[in-house]
Amino acid sequence: MASPNYDDKDVVICKPKQVSGTYADGDYYGEDATFASLPNAKTAAEISQDPSRYLCALGYFSFASLIDIKPPTGTLYIHSSSEPYNEEMVLNQERVDNWLDKFGMERHQIHCSGHAKAPDLFHIVKEIDARMLFPIHTEHQGMYVRATRNMTLVREGETYAL
Fold it and tell me: In this structure, is residue 125 part of a structural domain?
């Protein structure tokens, strides 16, 4: 599925506050100026007039927009990314949770890291039944013997004939 065009009539661009903390035209430069000046660009205040009409994609640094959007209590927040796996990510998640708590938003986690789960990978390896398997993007190469015997353990610096 392709991303929708930014000028699609059904796509609204949330115009962020910039340098002055307002929506002044002079605050936007380069690509930001292009998007901010589109007819389908709306401010958070405009979105707050009828927030149920919008599905907003907010990046980590856009959460301050919630102050002006004023989402109703119970508004859903879907976090479509991997769960925190290091200290920095845990701290960032705590900040996000604080924003969500402030506005009484309901949080849902959908794992979306781009990595398949181990049982799914083993199932795929069994289904494909390749003549050769070189597990290279894993910390646990040896686990693939559960799925195939046609496996070569990869060693750094070695060359392998295909």
Answer: yes
